[in-house]
Amino acid sequence: MLPRRSPIVIRSFLLRTYASTPSPHALIFLEQRQGQVDSGSLSALTAASQLGGKVTGLVVGTSEHVPAVVDKVKKLKGLTSLLHSTSELYAQQLPETLSPLLEKLLSGSEYTHVVSTPSSLAKSLLPRVAAKLDVPSVSEITSLEHDASSNSTTFTRPIYAGNAISTIRLSSSIPIKFFTVRATNFDPASFEENQEIEVKAVDPVDVPECPTEHISTQLTKSDRPDLSVAGRVVSGGRPLKNAETFAATLNPLADVLGAAVGASRAAVDAGYADNSLQVGQTGKVVAPELYMAIGISGAIQHLAGMKDSKMIVAVNKDPDAPIFQVADVGLVADLYEAVPQIIEKLKQ
Ligand code: FAD
């Protein structure tokens, strides 16, 4: 004889069936610093829009910056509503102070996805909240597909320094799907001047005993384009000898091209360039129109950060350097002779 099903079991089955087909509703963390929205957030918004449902933005900060940011981002195409929370608590944008707010917003909500750019903040914030909710967080996705009928989302992301692509499917059993978006794979969302969306303030969530204290912030000041989104990048490697030679050799080339400057890890580790300029697996991932690799061997960890560039130009004195395998234009030459000549030609 079959055991009798209890009504509770049946009800939970029905609830689960009902809960397994909600329309997607993404909450996107629109990261801002000093009133500047992180450009990667705009690409993350494009990815969130591809889920095919509602997209609610979240802006957090102090009263000095939030109103202006809200005024700007509410025109972002793809957003269907916008939340903002203002407090001195959020002055430093620490994951410890932001996670209780995010948890509160998600609790009992209809959100199906939480999305962000893979910034240092989001790399700590999203997994932190996801772990509290006992769900996974998928990082740096390069494509996504949402199947509304099964309420599952399939992501791809590069692994092994970009040498393999992993496909991850989060099924309907994961009620809220967290992911960060690799900016180079999605166009940034544009602005729609006439767009009107619901904008709502949400109360900050106090953190009485914050375990982290902000001591100081050190920002690298540069007039050059932001490396992550620059259309042209000039990167240098180990043979640039020291910080002075690195700057004296590459800056004039970057100036004439209006390019951002990048570096290999060898150049960063040797102190020629700031850590924030590192391109590669453990640095920034870039995909500019033009990437110039000057005295860079082309180790797989470096290629992981630049091989999707539209045009790769390499200058290296070793004809067998691996960088030539991905270069569209390769120049076998001593960089100290070649770079000044390239600058001269470009000036003409
Ligand atoms: P080298 O390998 O020393 O190459 C220098 C090149 O310059 C050579 O090809 C040489 O022929 C050429 N050269 C020398 N003199 C001249 C000259 N006068 N004119 C023209 N060419 C010249 N690396 C990264 O870049 N980014 C990362 O994110 C990164 N992450 C890593 C993560 C891990 C876990 C590991 C293990 C390594 C990582 N690396 C990373 C390091 C990487 O493996 C390489 O060691 C590094 O990229 C080498 O830097 P390079 O090409 O500047 O130096």
Automatic annotation (TrEMBL):
<feature type="binding site">
    <location>
        <begin position="295"/>
        <end position="302"/>
    </location>
    <ligand>
        <name>FAD</name>
    </ligand>
</feature>
<dbReference type="GO" id="GO:0009055">
    <property type="term" value="F:electron transfer activity"/>
</dbReference>
<dbReference type="Pfam" id="PF01012">
    <property type="entry name" value="ETF"/>
</dbReference>
<keyword id="KW-0496">Mitochondrion</keyword>
<dbReference type="InterPro" id="IPR033947">
    <property type="entry name" value="ETF_alpha_N"/>
</dbReference>
<feature type="binding site">
    <location>
        <position position="316"/>
    </location>
    <ligand>
        <name>FAD</name>
    </ligand>
</feature>
<keyword id="KW-0249">Electron transport</keyword>
<dbReference type="GO" id="GO:0050660">
    <property type="term" value="F:flavin adenine dinucleotide binding"/>
</dbReference>
<comment type="subunit">
    <text>Heterodimer of an alpha and a beta subunit.</text>
</comment>
<keyword id="KW-0274">FAD</keyword>
<keyword id="KW-0813">Transport</keyword>
<protein>
    <recommendedName>
        <fullName>Probable electron transfer flavoprotein subunit alpha</fullName>
    </recommendedName>
</protein>
<dbReference type="InterPro" id="IPR001308">
    <property type="entry name" value="ETF_a/FixB"/>
</dbReference>
<dbReference type="InterPro" id="IPR014730">
    <property type="entry name" value="ETF_a/b_N"/>
</dbReference>
<dbReference type="InterPro" id="IPR029035">
    <property type="entry name" value="DHS-like_NAD/FAD-binding_dom"/>
</dbReference>
<feature type="binding site">
    <location>
        <begin position="278"/>
        <end position="282"/>
    </location>
    <ligand>
        <name>FAD</name>
    </ligand>
</feature>
<keyword id="KW-0285">Flavoprotein</keyword>
<comment type="similarity">
    <text>Belongs to the ETF alpha-subunit/FixB family.</text>
</comment>
<feature type="binding site">
    <location>
        <position position="238"/>
    </location>
    <ligand>
        <name>FAD</name>
    </ligand>
</feature>
<dbReference type="Pfam" id="PF00766">
    <property type="entry name" value="ETF_alpha"/>
</dbReference>
<dbReference type="GO" id="GO:0033539">
    <property type="term" value="P:fatty acid beta-oxidation using acyl-CoA dehydrogenase"/>
</dbReference>
<keyword id="KW-0809">Transit peptide</keyword>
<dbReference type="GO" id="GO:0005759">
    <property type="term" value="C:mitochondrial matrix"/>
</dbReference>
<feature type="binding site">
    <location>
        <begin position="264"/>
        <end position="265"/>
    </location>
    <ligand>
        <name>FAD</name>
    </ligand>
</feature>
<comment type="function">
    <text>The electron transfer flavoprotein serves as a specific electron acceptor for several dehydrogenases, including five acyl-CoA dehydrogenases, glutaryl-CoA and sarcosine dehydrogenase. It transfers the electrons to the main mitochondrial respiratory chain via ETF-ubiquinone oxidoreductase (ETF dehydrogenase).</text>
</comment>
<dbReference type="InterPro" id="IPR018206">
    <property type="entry name" value="ETF_asu_C_CS"/>
</dbReference>
<feature type="domain" description="Electron transfer flavoprotein alpha/beta-subunit N-terminal">
    <location>
        <begin position="26"/>
        <end position="207"/>
    </location>
</feature>
<dbReference type="InterPro" id="IPR014731">
    <property type="entry name" value="ETF_asu_C"/>
</dbReference>
<dbReference type="InterPro" id="IPR014729">
    <property type="entry name" value="Rossmann-like_a/b/a_fold"/>
</dbReference>
